[in-house]
Design a protein that fits this description.
Strand content: over 45%
Distance between the termini: 36 Å
Number of helices: 0
Shape: globular
Number of strands: 11
Largest sheet: 7 strands, mixed
Order of helices and strands: EEEEEEEEEEE
Structural class: mainly beta
Radius of gyration: 13 Å
Length: 118
Amino acid sequence: VQFVESGGGLVPTVGSLTLACAVSGQSLSTYAMGWFRQPPGSEREFVAYISYNGEITDYAISVKGRFTISRDNAKNTLYLEMINLKPEDTGVYFCNAAAARAGRFDTWGQGTQVTVSS
């Protein structure tokens, strides 16, 4: 399975971005999926979770109300809409199949860099 994240960039505080994660080598339709991020100098952390059918979502408290996770199983693609961005949202964002709030597969993509300027 391969994950290719895209959509990152440099935005000002309270800006917005939408990230995408294209998955190949495996159908997404039977997996819960998640977004994770790695802030500078820190470990990778959980951001958002979505069940295999999109009916259940879960968010880290720091992003709840600002980020929205969604999926298109027909396109094998996962999305993360981010609004009202803050400097502490800066980091490299990754996607993976999710087992609760952890990545399911050992393989990770390159991620996409999100930088929020203050």
